[in-house]
Structures are given as structure tokens and as C-alpha cells.
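User: What would this chain look like folded?
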Amino acid sequence: MPLKDLEEKILQHVNLQYQDDKNAISRVRNANFAPNLTIISDADKNIVSSKKKELTKETLNAKEDINVGLGIKIEFEFDKLIFNDDEINLANLMLKKLEHRYELLEKVHQHYFSYKNIQENNKKITSSKELKDIHQQLEIHAAVLDSYSNNAFSNFIKEGQK
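Assistant: Here's the prediction, encoded as C-alpha cells.
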């Protein structure tokens, strides 16, 4: 199985894909550009008012003219656009995921290359006892790679043997 395909299967199985990190960072950054919206309504008799009042039955049934005003107030928090705690927390989380991903792929590489190396050395051995030992070592490495990849490694080998 090509190493790149195995890595993708493993990262997908343990939910450590690179694309998820990029999407999360862009969502947090874009959320900071959203303004806070406030709806303002004013109602008063014959007076233009800046004081907020509710429309009541009495004011609506009045014989005099009613001035009603609606407005939308938009506020941006520039300090959050420049320096945002959510982004820092997410960056720390992504750093921990990156460390976990690196450690996992390091273990996978060790087992993968050991498996490949044993396969190459297997061609030179003629003794049945040595073949049995090598076969056990191959099974151990394959079992570890299967545990990481949700059996994708063994399934690939079985497909290749058909």
C-alpha cells in the first residue's frame, strides 16, 4: 500500500485531517467580521424623539399624528478583529493536534518501513524457522497498521493477492 494512501486513511480514521484545521481557522476568522446588530424603534406624538418607547394601544388610537422611527445600529469590535482569544485558543488546539498527528505518523512510518524491510529480507531466507519468525513479525506490523487504519492496510494486501 502506498504510504501516502495509508497516511490519509489513518488520519481520516482518527479524525486528524489537515483540511479540518484550515476550515476551523477560517471560520473563526470570518466570525470576527460579523457585526453586532441592534434594532432601535422610536414612537411619540408629534415629536421627533430619540428616546426609546414602545408602541401601545393608546398611542396607536390617538387622534394626533404619530411619529414612528426604526433604525439599525451596527457595531464592529475592532479589538476582536486584531487580537482574538478564540483564534489563540484554536491555534493552541491545532498545535496539539499537529503534535498528535506527528507522533502518530512517526509510529506508522516505523511499522510501515519495518514491514517493507522484512518483506525485502524475506526473499533471501531459506530456513522454515526463519520464515515462520519473519511471518510473525509481518503479522505484528500489519496488525498495528490495521489498528491505526481501521483494517485498510490488510484489506489492501488482500486485494493485491487476488
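DSSP finds seven helices and two strands in the chain. If you want, I can go into more detail on any region.
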